[in-house]
Amino acid sequence: MGAQEIDVLNKAVEEYNDGKNEKAAIGFYQVEETATVEDNRFKAEYYLAQSLNKLGLGFGSFFYYGQIIKAGPAHPYYYKAVEGAVAVTDQYRDEVLGPNVLNKAYNDQFGRLPPSPRRFRLFENTRTCNENSRGENSHDATNVRVRQTLP
Question: How many CB atoms lie within 10 A of CB 115?
């Protein structure tokens, strides 16, 4: 299975690089669902999210970014997934799901992300809301943070 798995993954990467995102997503999904090698699953999971985003399937893309974020900083694509999730949240002007997932996942490790004024506002306001919303409805705190960060 390992040789076939790497062949499917390599073919999906090739299709992704050639802009054949639909075919690439199918290959990445196959590997993500059946991988016997953890590193292959990690890579397939991230590039599946990327492929879905390029196909205009932001919610599907965000689902896989969210799975990576849920796995935590030990996932080799964690920081890239956070960046991807923020980009999808911005692109679709999502004021509920994306900010809520990022709010729950927020930790000091987010400081390791490359600087960006938009990202800085999002994470600074997430941290502030986390500190100020103890005992409050998290949805209300999330909406406050989003209104503060969207242009």
Answer: 7
